[in-house]
Each structure stands twice: as structure tokens, then as C-alpha cells.
Write a structure and sequence with these properties.
It contains two helices and 19 strands. With 273 residues, it is mostly beta strands. The strands form six sheets. A four-stranded antiparallel sheet has the order 1-2-3-4, with no helix packed on it. The protein has a four-stranded antiparallel sheet with strand order 7-8-9-10, with no helix packed on it. The protein is globular.
Length: 273
Amino acid sequence: MFSADQAEINEQRTAYGLATWQDRTTGRSYALVSQRERTRLALLELRPAANGTIGYRTVRTLDLPSSFRLPDGTTWSPCLEPGELPQVEGMVVDPATGTLYAGQEDIGIWRLRADLTGRPVLVDRTEEYGVPGVYDEATEECTPGTDPGYGGEHLSADVEGLTLYQERDGDGHLLASSQGDNTFALYDREVREGNAYEGGFRVGAATGTLDSVEECDGAAVLNAPLGKRYPRGLLVVQDGHETPEVSDGEGGTRTATGFKFVDLATVVDATGM
């Protein structure tokens, strides 16, 4: 959907983040997809195709900013590998309002219409927003400069998985994985209140059994009873640094990844969601 030829596919400038959405007015179903190493989002209408398969048509695309004007009048772009732009990975759509929340990893969380019309609004910025950096080819790392103080307070890059906690009365929260400090940030679901920040939490270790959650790429929450073990719902989070390490099959080790199941009641009770 993004690549014009095989060369672009070989460069992996392909689909990255994904969210699905059904327009309550028309009943039509859509997928929203982001492009790797680019700022582009695409809206795809999903359509029935032959032999029970699903096809799609591209409705429109939208490019989020890659550079930003700071309060001191200077222009800033995040430090990335040459040729890369700040990509979006985590996305979720609020079905009640048709609102898309998109996590631009080095920048913050955007709010925009899920049909990709209108003007995107930056709900919150990462702590690293506005910090200059120099990319070192030898180390493949960025050396940060002096922090000018324009960043946010609740998200540490990268912004990763986004998921929506929906209450039956219409209230709820947006949960965002703040990968840089291994926490989850909570924002009010109410757009009219500006999606205000309402706290955060960390998924810690379970004594003697499971390690804590680090470098979380994605999360999904379901506010519905799921039997005796999860009577008030379930939060599933990806753990990017599972303990212990495992063999890489070549005489070395690699960091394992996994998923942690969290009783939603413990999150609700701890945070007041």
C-alpha cells in the first residue's frame, strides 16, 4: 500500500502500525496503517473480496509533521538515523467519536479524526521533545545536546502501544506505553477536556514468578468479565525484555520477549480509573 516498487519494499518502508475502525454512520470498516520510517498514515476501506477474502481501497493518506517550530523560534527534528523520519507505531480509534490517537515515537501522542480529515492536535509531548542530537555513524546512536525544556512530563520516548479503556457509561481512559521509562500513562478519554493526563502506573514483578515489564511495544485492554480469574477484565502488555535470556542458536544469548496478563481490577484500583 505504500511501496511503489520492489526497491522500496527492500528498504522496509512498508506497513508498521495498525488500527481498525468501523464508521457508525455508514457501517463501513476501515484499517488505519502507518509507514515505517516515515510520518505517513493511510486510511484503507476494507471490502469483501472473492472466496471469503478481504480486499481494500486506499481512501486517503496524511503526513504528520517531521519538524517542529519551538517557542524560541528555532526548528527542531528528532535525531534519527540518516534518511529516517519520526514514525508512528501505536494507534487506536475511539469508536464512540471516530477519534484516532496515534503515537509518533519520538514526538508524542496525536489526536485526529479517524477519517484523516481535519487538523491533528498534539495531546502530549515526549520528555525528549525539542532536545537536539547528533547521530554517530560508528555507534549508530544519537548524542543528545542541552535540553531546552520544551518537552512533556509524562512520556519518555519511544511512545509505543496505545489502547482504550472504555467504561459502560461512556467514560474511560487512553493508555499509552512510555517505553523509555517502562511506564504506562493514562489520559482522559474526553476530547472536550483536552484528554487531560490523569496518572500512570508500572507493571512490576510478581514475587517469585514473573519479572516486570520493560520496553513495551504494545498493549490491549478489555473491560469485560473473563471468568473467575479476570472477573473485571484484562490488560495484556508486550514485555520486550523477558527474563531470563535464551539461546540464539549460535552459541550466544538473546533477550526473550513475551506477553503479561494483568488483572484489570488491580490497575483500576491502583490508579482510580
